[in-house]
Amino acid sequence: QVQLEESGGGLVQAGGSLRLSCAASGRTSSSYGMGWFRQAPGKEREFVAAINKSGGTTYYADSVKGRFTISRDNAKNTVYLQMNSLKPEDTAGYYCGASNKWYYSGAYKDKTNYDYWGQGTQVAVSS
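Above: the chain's sequence. Below: its structure in token form.
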């Protein structure tokens, strides 16, 4: 099992930046593909970004491509999400997940493929 804890959320003006962190404990996070998802009030949890076990391959939702960067430091059991040029529509709770179920193309986008989740960190972007 792995426990995940997100941090780094907050209130920022449009155009600003935040860096989210997801610290893993228990089984090392390097055993898992890791993803960031977000959920706004009244909406489904949606895919934001994902990174494979080694950190050599990354994936992004079209809505954040070019603005967000996912990375991982396996020595620190931590995954990061650098968010630049933030927009009000980025306002949501952000959750990291760990998965060993990337068995098919695009599996990283499906939240049902993630076995472990953190409690989330809130991001609010004001206009």
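The chain has a mean pLDDT of 95.
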